[in-house]
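User: Let's play a game. I give you a shape written as tokens, and you guess the letters that built it. Ready? Here's round one.
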């Protein structure tokens, strides 16, 4: 079965978790919130470590690279050049907006 979920779904599922939280606590919080099996499976696939907030969780789960992160081509290229934490997917590495993008946004 092809499992797909989005970073937004994962963040929503752990919104009531107390941070910092470990992987097992996040899985339990998602189950209590009624998260889908895909979201729970994505959380189970994360590295075992402590997560400080929902943003760290969203960056650590494996989701479709084009799911809902809204990154520009320049940001995706920067992600490919920069290293991330061990176990972190390339498409979830934190990158700043290019200066020109800041200027173009209203």
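Assistant: Ready! My guess for every position:
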């Amino acid at each position: 079965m092809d499992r797909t979920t989005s970073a937004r779904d994962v963040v929503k599922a752990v919104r009531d978790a107390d941070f910092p939280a470990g992987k097992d606590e996040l899985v339990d919080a998602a189950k209590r919130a009624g998260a889908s099996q895909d979201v729970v499976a994505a959380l189970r696939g994360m590295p075992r470590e402590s997560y400080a907030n929902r943003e760290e969780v969203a960056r650590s789960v494996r989701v479709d690279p084009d799911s809902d992160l809204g990154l520009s081509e320049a940001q995706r290229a920067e992600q490919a050049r920069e290293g991330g934490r061990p176990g972190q997917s390339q498409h979830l590495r934190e990158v700043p907006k290019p200066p020109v993008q800041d200027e173009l946004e209203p």
